[in-house]
Each structure stands twice: as C-alpha cells, then as structure tokens.
Amino acid sequence: MAMSRIIFTRDEILNIRDSTPSDLCPNFLASPVDLQDLLTSARISNGCVSVLRIYDRDSLVRIKESMEGLFDTRGRYKQAFPPPFIIDPDSPEYLLLCRAPGKVRRKSRKRGSRSGVQVKRRRAAARLGPAIFGHGERVRCLYRIPLLNVCDSTSTLPSAWTTMTVLEPTQRWSSGQRLSSPPRSSVFTPVPARSSRSPRDRCLRPIPLRSADTASVTSSTLHIGLLNARSIANKSFSLNDLFTREKLDLMCLSETWQREEEFIHLNELCPAGCSAVGKPRPCRRGGGLAVVYKDSCTCKVTQTQEYTSFESQMVRVGSSNPFYCVSIYRPPGPAAVFLKDFSDFLTSIISLESVLILGDFNLHVDDSSSCSAKELLSLTEAFNFEQHVSEPTHQKGHILDLVFTLGLDISNVSVQDVHLSDHCFVLFDLHFSPEPKPLEVRSQRRVISANTADSFSAMFDPLLFMDCLDVDNFMHCFTKQCVKILDQVAPVKSNLSIQKKVCPWTNEVTLSLKRLCRKTERLWKATNLEVHRLYLRDLVSSYNEMVENARSDYIRQLVTVNKKNPKVLFDTINSLVCSAAPVTPVFCEADSNTLLRFFTDKIKMIKEKIPPLLCGTPAVIEPVSSLWSSFKSVTLTDISALVTKMKPSSCSSDVLPCRLFVKVFDVIGPWVTKMVNLSLSTGVFPSTFKHAIVEPLLKKTGLDPTVLSNFRPISKLPLLSKILEKVVSEQLSLFLDQGNIHETFQSGFRKLHSTETALLKVSSDIMMSADSGKCTVLVLLDLSSAFDTVDHQILLRRLRDEVGLSGSVLHWFSSYLSGRSFSVTVNQIRSESADLLCGVPQGSVLGPVLFLLYLIPLGKIIQGFPDVSYHMFADDIQLYCSFKPTELQRLSSLVQCLVEIKHWLSDNTLQLNEDKTETLVIAPDDSIPGINQYLGDLGQSVKPSLRNLGVVFDKDMSLVQHCKQLTKSCFFQLRNISKLRKMVSQNDLELITHAFVSSRLDYCNSLFSCLNKKELSRLQLVQNSAARVLTRTNRRTHITPILKALHWLPVSSRINFKILVLTFRALHGQAPPYISDLIQPYTPTRALRSVDQNLLTLPHTRFRTRGDRSFQAVAPRLWNDLLLSLRSMESIDSFKKQLKTYLFAHAFA
Q: For residues 1119 and 532, what is the distance between their CA atoms, to the nearest angstrom?
C-alpha cells in the first residue's frame, strides 16, 4: 500500500527544520520521514488523485498563537505533544500550509477596500496550481471540511486546534480532473463566497473543526434580549417589530407599567407564534416585568418569594434540560436593603444548576467608586455567577442592565440603542441543549367552494342504500357514498400547519415607514450625528402610531363585514383584551396518549376510592304511573326544524362539514329522516356515533399547561348524532313532564330553570327564616367528576323502575350507553382509542338529562329529614337547615342527612369531594361558636363567605362582598373597553359594553333587593362610567341626560324589572313551581272592588333588613304598585316592552 505523506511548502519546511527536533511529530506521518526527504517530496503520487487540504487564514493564526507557548526563546520545543491529526494510511495526500512560529510577513500594500485580501488569494492560487498540478492548472472551487481528531483519549490538543477549518476543492479543476472527496450530504452544500469579485472562491464556506470527543455534542442557541421599556403601552408594536427584526427567542422587559389582569398591550407586542407572561407591580404604579418567548420554547412561570426592595419573575425554559431565567427590576431605594434581599434570593435558588439572571439593577457597576456596585459583583461572584455586560446600557453612560449566568454559556453580548427608552437593548446568545422539535403535522381539510353544494346534490344517489333495514349498514352506505362524492367535488388537501408571520393589518404604508426607520438607523450608525438620532426616534414613534391605526382600521372593517356574526366580534375582542392561552406541549402521538391515560386513570382512581356498599337508607321507589315502550316517528319537517335551531358546530368525525350539510339538506334530508326513524324503530343507536373526539382545554386562563389536572376534557360528537339525540330528548322531556317525574328542586338543564331561580328560592327562604328570628346553616356539596362515574347498569335499572321506560325505548338507551369510546386530539395529533365503561356521554344532548334522572332518588332521601331543605343544580347540591337559637339539636338532623347522602352516593358509584365542601352559618356573631359545636366535622368547613353558583353569600346575606367583587370586575372590563374605542363603531362598542359589563350587572340581580343604598350607588357608578366611556364624556358632565339618551334604565330600575318579569312568569306558569309557590294571588274574604285587580298577597314580615328584602315580600309589593293595564297583560313580550317604558318614565321623570 502506498504511503501517504504530509506535504509542506519548501519555505515552511526550511523554517521548521531549525526550530523542531527530530522527534517533534513521531506519529504525524504514516511512517517516520526525515526532514531532508520531506524537502524533496514536494509532490508525491501513489497512483491516486491527490486531494487538496488548505488551512484558512484564521485557523493559521490560531495555530501560531497556540504553538508559540510551546517553544522556548531559542525556538526549541519544550515538551512532547501529540500530533493534531493522524493521517490514516488509506487516506489521500494532504497539503498543509503552516507558517513557522515567529515569522512576520510583510504587510501587503492596500489597493482599495478589499484589494489586500484578493491579492493574497490570487497569489496563493497562482503558487498552488503549478506546485501541485503543474503549469496551467489552477483551483476553481474550494470548500472547507472538518478535520477529525483520531488521537488516543489521553492526548491533549491546544485549544485553538479544536476550532480549525480547512479548505477542500468542491468539484473539479480547470483541467476537468475529478478529485476524490468525502461523501456528499446536505452539510457539504456549496454556498456563495464572501466576495463576488474573484471567481476562485465563490464556493468556499466555513465548517468548524471538531475533535472526536466533542463531535457528538449538540447544542442549540437562543437569541435573548433585555430592555427596560419604561411602559409598553405606547411602544408595543415597536417592541413587536424589535422581537421579529432581531430574530429573538426570548425577550425580558422591565418597567412594563402594566396593571393587574391587563393583557391588551402584552398581546400587541407578541408576534405570531409567540406568547408573553407578565407580572405587574402589585401595590403601586410603575414597575412590572414581562417575558416574551416563542412557543417553541417551553416556558413555565415558577413562583418565588416576594421581596420589597426589588421585583422578580422566574421562568423555567425548556423541558428536558431546562434552565431558569430570572428577570429583575430594582427601583431606586436603599442599596443595603436590596443587597440583603438579593443575597437571600440567591440563597433560595442555590440548588439550581443553570440560572440566567438579568434585568435593571439601577447600580453603576462601571463606577469603581460605587461601594454598592462592588458589593453586588462580589456577592454574585461568591455564588459563582458571572457578569457579561461591559458596555454602558443607559443614555447617561452607565451600566445599569446586567446579565449574570451560572452554569450557562453565552456569547455575542452587544448593547444597542433602539430608541424606545432611555435604556439600551442588551443582546446575547445562550447555548444550551436543544429541545425536541414538534412533529410536523399536516392538516387535512376539504375546501368547500360555492359550487360544491350543487355538485354534491347532483351526484347524490339514494338508491344505493334505499333498501337498508339495519341502521349500522344504512350509515355505512350513506357515509361511503358521501365520502366518495366529496373526494371528487372537494378532495382532501394536506398542508403543513404553519403559523402566519405577517400581521393581517400590515400594509404598504407601514412597510415603507418601517424600511425608512431601518434606513435612518443605518445612517445614524454611520454618521453618529445627534440630528440623525433624533430623526430616528421620531420615526420609531410614528411607526408605532401608524401600526396602531392600521390595526384599528383592520378590526373595524372585520367587525363591519361580520356584523351578523357576533362570534367574530367577541372572538376578536377576546384576542385583544384577554390573556392568550398557552400552547399545549403535545408534539407527538405519545403526548396525546399521555393525556388519554390521565383522563382514564382519573376515573379509575375515583372509582377505587369509593367505599363498598354501605347499605344506607334505601330510597322509596314509587310505582310508575305510565310506561313508555316505543318512540314516535318523525317527519322531514321535524328534522328540518331541529337543524334550523341547532347551533352550527362541526367535529372531525362528521360525514359532511356542518356548512355543507345545511346547504345540501334539501337533498339528504329525507334520508337523514329515514336514518332517525330506523334507529328509533329498531332500538339501536348507530355505532359510528359512539366515538367521541376529546379536545382538552385549560380550566382557567394562565394555568400551567404541563400540569395535566389543569385540563378539562371537551368532548365532540358528530352532527348527525346530535340530531338523533335531540329527537329522543324532546320525546323524553314530554314523557317526563306528563308523568311529573322531574325532581322539583332540580334546576340544572331544565327549561325555564336557571341559576337565578335556584338562588332566588334559597335566599328567599333564608331571609324569611332570619326575619322570624331563626339561624340557618348552608352546606354546599361538591361531587368529583360526577358525570363520568355514573354506572350504566344502575342507570338502566333506574330508567326502567323509576322512570317507566320499556320495550324498544329501553333497548335504545341500552344501545346508546354501550360500546362507547373516545380519543384525545391536541394540536391535530390524535391519540389511541379508549373505551368508556361508565359515565354519561360528555358533549351529548342526552347526557345531562340522564344524569338528572340518575339523581332522582337523592331528593327523596333528603325529603325524609323534615328540618332539612335542599336545592340542586346538576351535580351542585345545597343543604340548608333553619332553627331557633334555642333549638340547636335540630342540627343533628342535618348531620345525619349528610351521612345518608354519603351512603347513597357510594352505593351509586359517586364520590363526595369533602375537601371542597363549604359551610356558611347565617346567624348573629355571638351564636356562631355554639352552632359550630353541633356541626361535627362540618365545623372545619365553615367560612365567613362562600361563592354559590356565581354569587357570594355572606353571614348577613347582605351581598356586600359580592358587590365589591362585581364592581372590581366591571371596572377592569371598562378599562379594556376604553382601549377599543378607536377600533369599533359606537354601535358595536355599545354591544361590547352590554356583553362585558351590563351582563355582569344583570346576572342574578333579582337577589340585589337586599343591597343597601351604599352598595347600590357603587353599582350605579359602574353603569355611569360605562355610559361615559361609550359616549366619551368627561366625569363633570351630568349623567342623567346621558343615560336617558342611551335609553338605559338605572341599576335600581333594572333590579325591579327583573323581579317583576319573574313575577309575571310565575303567575302565568312560565317559571319553576318553587318560584310560583313564593307568591300568592290576593283573595279578599268578602266581595270587594279589588277582586279583579290582579293583586298579590303581602306576607307578614318583622324586619325591614330581612323579611322585607326577600323575593317573597318584594315581588308582591312591586307588582301591586304597577298599573292595572300592566298587571292584566297576557303576553310576556308585550309585558316586557310596556314595563320598561313604565320604569323608564318613572326613573327620568
């Protein structure tokens, strides 16, 4: 085998000869070669084509610097060292151009800005061509390849050698010879040269040199920025552009000056595919921190201890190999206090290995006379933190913004003046282990055009499934034909889900101004003139204002175009003023399967915690008065009416998209009707409708998406399934109403029932008990995943024995509950399928109705305790017991009732969540301790106030605490609405005001009759402020003409309006029976003229602040004050219209 040699140029070997001993490189060559032989070996050929290896200039300089320390003053080598690279005998020959240490080359004469570099390149090419390939040959294209270190593991190389690069010819020489080269891959793709003047190096590109032990180490780079923004309100779009322009992955902002629960400006500064988390200053104005990050960076807010001398926000970045990013803002104040608190903070995070601390410290670390700055640097150094900022970050020339790292590698630290505040922008790169990239998911959808419906209708052939007598076979043929037609008229298109990077309101005007800003910035950096800096600052401010106006115009046009679609309006408003939901970290099918297992394991754990049968008091089963054994057939008109009333909602498992389904219903309607009747007559629920798609959503905005318990499963079912269930639901409700089977005090999922009617009944009972001198104990029970733990066999027995279902109806419900499954879909990634062995179907029409029927025996058990009253809203159960202060023994009945409820729930596979059980004692303060002694275990759950179906009850039933929270919530919404005035018209703004403010004032406002004048004035102030925001009037303008012009009833009149409407409904059978029982028509004992006046009986009350404020007393008083013409009306719509006119005239008389 021919021996490969390392070949040097003659001049370099002569320089090496005198300074290098004979044993300098014992293993450098394949076999020892004398230096004299090396002189004559300028060109060696062993039968194969030579491959050129040339070091670039930067690598040669690093070799020189690293080798100078290895020679003594006489040029002799001090110690033996391993060779930088061992040449394998099978490898081709190499030419290493290495300069001898200490030799200084004469500086070339400059001929223009780049002539020196080009002269050197041409001279080297002219010399190398004849030396290697003879005269007439020259190098056309070279590219750099890495040299791999194959030394033994004990050898140590100089640090500069691990970053060297070489140059290699890419394809061919001028003579057409083809060279042996390493195997091609995407890594070796030629790139344009650094200069376009010389054709010799147009395919040169740098490749970093890696040693064997570092070649396998991979790292990623995060581009991070730091800025003291001094309010993000007036520069949010400029910050958005800065994030995009600098291609940042993470940006930390201090002094955001944002308020609690204010998200509009955070949403504005987030580019597409990014999110932001903010931490406003809790107590006073100013301050505040925020972190903007790309969604590809998994960020999680971590709670830290609060300190008075500085603000901090810690974010955990990454999942597999995370580091912690801590934003700091220190406001002016005593430095000694800050240093003590900061020392405590560093001590609290001492267990973390990788930490990045950055922010505005307001200490002049560049001032050698600053003792506080010295102590800060000494403190961080003691904790092994390294400070990286060395340039002034403030306009006055001091270093205030600092970057500290522990266990992290950062580089390219720079400071730029971006003209957004008096602080400069700090940029740097952070190197860390890369995170797993999300799976590229291709979304599949059908493009529905204007002609799709007509084409589908023309190709639809019902003869293919006309004779199907089995509902599953019918659905199979129907689905098969629909899919076949859709594949022709609207084929499935697959494309990658790529986030749009350009804002929809970007136009040519904003782009041109943006280009002008960049041009002026380059001019200022070139001239460094103050006039250019001031001009750039004005342009940046103008750009932010222009983008804001462009966005306002876009949103105004969007709302105008979709004027008949309120969903677009509210979705747009929510995207502006509400916090964006964090991205769920689901990147592959395994992640979706993890969520699937969590939901299934959660139900299994609940079922395992339920104790065995406790044999509580069995509920009395009354014989059913009637049986229901068969369904009624439906007509096309019935199905068409259902389709018209149903909300348009689609599911990925739908045969036809909802929009297309409505358009072609005239063609497929008869066959949908046949499918429904076929299912009802055979008692079989189609199996294709039994699979649900679960899309998890966070329970509240701001919750951590990495905690699986923070998700609520939202189940979606096919549209045809909902149509079939709606038909059954209407027939079932009719049967339940005729048989009076419904639970009287159950207000959930029932027509004419609501949370307001439920709370009105409970509060009225409590107020009347308090008027008679009684105390009341209210207990709120919470069930754990009650809908998901329903036992199917128990439910079917209950439908048969207590409801009266039989025959094909009972068989249909049995088929409906059996064989169900679900899968989880997140980020268009679907999990495996899992069986549903228990629970009523979530997201269905019949699921809530079946759950109410499942709880029917519970009401009968509670009725066995005469001293205990109750009310239920779905799975929310309320128990309350009223008693005289001298009759505390009656509380034993409440405790025993609770025990029986626990037994019944366990026997029916339901679990009571005792941790969420809350108790409220409504009694004088001196009586509460004695009452608590009789409550037993319930005494631990007693609270001064509790939230009951959205309304805060307190121990006095004054609703003062609820009024305070309501006022705070409304003013927060008004602040957001005030920032939308430029974006929408006044009519749309009024619609938004009613949706976000008036709806809150009107929620359960029939209970507000117990509010005193002070609290009513607070609510009236909210309405007045809403009117001023809408009409843009100042606070000194008289409010009464404004409310009258808007035709808004005052708050007190709105309360009376709601009470009177409920009274009208109760008198005309349009309210729940328990509301109708609270009022009694007036019947005189003898014939009087008031017999035909439609008056109500006023109950006897003792206290104005108790009984007089209950619905039972307020409703008759307000009703009797109405005009006879109003009391005599029969239509609810006419009554509402005339009542508002009447109240409006009295309010503004």
A: 74
Report the CATH number that the domain containing residue 351 is assigned in CATH: 3.60.10.10
Residue ranges making up the domain that contains 992: 958-1039
61 pLDDT more than 50: yes
Q: Judge whether 136 lies within some domain.
A: yes
State both tokens at 862. 């509670």
Q: What angle do CA 659, 664, 666 make, to 5 degrees?
A: 130
Note the pLDDT of residue 435.
64
pLDDT in tens, 490-513: 888 776 555 445 678 888 888 899
pLDDT value for 708: 85
3-state secondary structure 969-980: HHHHHHHHHHCC
66 and 149 co-located in one domain: yes
CB neighbours (10 Å) of residue 905?
A: 23
Evaluate whether residue 215 is within a structural domain: no
- Separation CA 421–CA 227 (nearest Å): 9
First CA to last CA distance, the chain: 114
Site of tokens 């009117």: 1027
Do residues 580 and 270 make contact, with C-beta atoms less than 8 angstroms apart?
A: yes
CA distances from 90 to 4, 30, 53, 87 (A): 7, 10, 16, 8
Q: Find the helix or strand (DSSP H, E) in which 716 lies.
A: strand 711-716
The pair of three-digit structure tokens given for residue 1013, joined into one six-digit string: 């004048």
Interval 337-347: pLDDT, tens: 999 999 999 99
The tokens for 743 are 């639970």
Global confidence as pTM: 0.74
Q: Is 461 exposed, middle or buried (0-12, 13-18, 19+ CB in 10 A)?
A: exposed
State whether residue 523 is helix, strand or coil: helix
Evaluate whether 1060 touches 1146 at the Cβ level (below 8 Å). Answer: no
Q: Say yes or no: 320 and 463 in one domain.
A: no
> What 8-state DSSP symbol labels residue 699?
S
Q: Are residues 881 and 989 in the same domain?
A: no
Total tally of structural domains belonging to the chain: 7
Relative orientation angle of helices 335-348 and 371-382, to the nearest 10 degrees: 10
Task: Look at residue 1104 in the predicted model and tell me its pLDDT.
Answer: 84
CATH number at residue 687: 3.30.70.270
Among 1071, 1036, 1040, smallest CA distance to 1053 is for 1040
In contact, 232 and 257? CB cutoff 8 Å: yes
DSSP track, 188-208: G-----S-SS-GGGTT-----
- 455 and 412 inside one domain: no
Q: Which of 1039, 1065, 1094 is the last residue of a domain?
A: 1039
**Cβ atoms < 10 Å from Cβ of 202:** 18
Alpha carbon distances (Å) from 73 to 60, 61, 160, 734, 1104: 21, 20, 21, 107, 107
Domain match, 650 and 620 both: yes
Average pLDDT rounded to a whole number, residues 446-458: 86
Residue keyed to tokens 């001032």? 367
Predicted local distance difference test score (pLDDT) of residue 141: 40
Q: Are residues 156 and 44 in the same domain?
A: yes
Using pLDDT thresholds of 50, 70 and 90, give the confidence band for residue 229: very high
Top mean pLDDT of 19-23, 244-248, 775-779 is at 775-779
The Cα 376–Cα 339 span in angstroms is 7
Q: Are residues 834 and 848 in the same domain?
A: yes
DSSP 834-877: EEE-SSPPTT-SHHHHHHHHHTHHHHHHHTT-TTEEEEEETTEE
Indicate whether 1006 belongs to any domain.
yes
Q: Which of 900, 934, 954 is the last residue of a domain?
A: 954
CA distance 1071 to 1069: 6
Check whether residue 1061 and residue 1123 sit in a common domain: yes
Question: In a 3-state reduction of DSSP, which class is residue 227?
Answer: strand
pLDDT confidence band for 86 (50 / 70 / 90): very low
Lowest mean pLDDT among 15-24, 107-116, 262-271, 896-905: 15-24
Residue 829 within a domain: yes
Phi/psi at 101 (5° precision): -60, 140
Look-up: residue for tokens 């029916």? Answer: 908
